[in-house]
Write a structure and sequence with these properties.
Layout lengths: L1 E4 L7 H16 L5 E4 L6 H7 L4 E4 L6 H4 L7 E4 L6 H9 L3 E4 L3 H15 L3 E5 L5 H7 L6 E4 L14 E5 L5 H14 L4 E2 L5 H11 L6 E5 L5 H13 L3 E5 L15 E6 L5 H16 L15
Parallel strand pairs: 1-12, 2-3, 2-4, 4-5, 6-7, 6-8, 8-9, 10-11, 10-12
Helix pairs in contact: 8-9
Length: about 300
């Protein structure tokens, strides 16, 4: 069985920046309580590792950042890489919190484009995932002007807007975006479209679309990570027979490995490199000795 790592994969610059900002906060404010407003990036191993720096976090499914902020009453609040709306920032400042914004630059760029379009009286079609913090931050900008599009089915019921501006969550599937944009162009031929899938997401997805004769692809990533899930979706649409999203080497199903000739491994943009390397190294060891035991995982590894 041949095993190889897909290049590029793993951490993007926005994730690295967010982690570094969190670690710097721990150094700058050693005597203050530090809380991340949600998972700083969507990977639980990163969140667990930051606990070594005495950084806590709060997260509740389908609960807005604005509501979550009610649980932080002192110290430092870190806004995650997924972006934050002005309303959350203003509320945090009014509570006297020290604010650190770890928003990805690509996310901030998209928000800026949308704000400018709203100022020009455009109606916004924003392609994204419901309840995702990046989409939430955008829809909070102007709930009347911004329409969240989660699939092609959301396009047809929309009214006949005169001015339409289209953008998207940065971690969406390039294939999915293309399909939705086609439906939007058909309904709104006059739409102004800014496709904003970030470069890191795009090149990782394109790398999968270039794979040939692969029997199985392991995507190492957190189940909450949209970009990791989109890598899995892209691989399935590309026709790779077996695609598995795993968090670490412990999740590998050994039974079918004997049936594979070529196995590829990729990773989400928020996945620590050591987790991906463990998967690759173990699979290569399995090729030599099928009785190789999977290693234990240290989720508290310091980043």
């Amino acid at each position: 069985m041949e095993v190889f790592k897909v290049i590029p994969s793993g951490y993007c610059k926005g994730v690295v920046n967010a982690i570094n900002l969190a670690k710097k906060a721990a150094l700058d404010y050693p005597d203050k309580k530090i809380t991340m407003l949600g998972m700083i990036v969507h990977n639980r191993y990163v969140v667990e590792a930051l606990k070594h720096y005495y950084i806590d976090f709060i997260e509740q499914p389908k609960t807005t950042r604005l509501k979550l902020l009610d649980q932080i009453n002192e110290g430092v609040v870190i806004f995650t890489a997924h972006g934050v709306c002005d309303e959350v920032i203003n509320k945090a400042q009014s509570k006297g919190l020290i604010c650190i914004n770890a928003s990805c630059g690509d996310v901030i760029k998209t928000q800026t484009l949308i704000k400018e379009a709203i100022a020009d009286n455009y109606n916004i079609l924003y392609i994204g995932k419901q309840f995702h913090p990046e989409s939430e931050a955008v829809t909070f900008i102007d709930s009347e002007k911004i329409n969240l599009i989660t699939s092609v089915k959301d396009v047809d019921p929309l009214p006949s807007f005169e001015k339409v501006f289209v953008s998207n969550q940065t971690t969406m599937s390039i294939l999915e975006i293309s399909e939705i944009l086609e439906a939007i162009r058909k309904k709104y031929p006059h739409a102004v479209i800014h496709e904003e899938v970030c470069n890191a997401t795009r090149i990782r997805q394109e790398a999968i679309l270039k794979l040939e004769n692969v029997d199985c692809l392991f995507v190492v990533g957190d189940p909450h990570s949209n970009n990791s899930n989109k890598l899995k979706d892209i691989a399935l649409k590309h026709g790779i027979p077996h695609v598995e999203l795993i968090e670490n080497v412990q999740d590998i199903n050994i039974a079918p490995l004997k049936n594979y000739n070529r196995v590829a491994v990729t990773a989400g943009a928020s996945t620590p490199t050591y987790l991906t390397d463990q998967v690759v190294e173990w699979l290569k060891s399995y090729c030599i000795d099928p009785n190789t035991e999977k290693p234990s995982i240290n989720i508290h590894k310091i980043l």
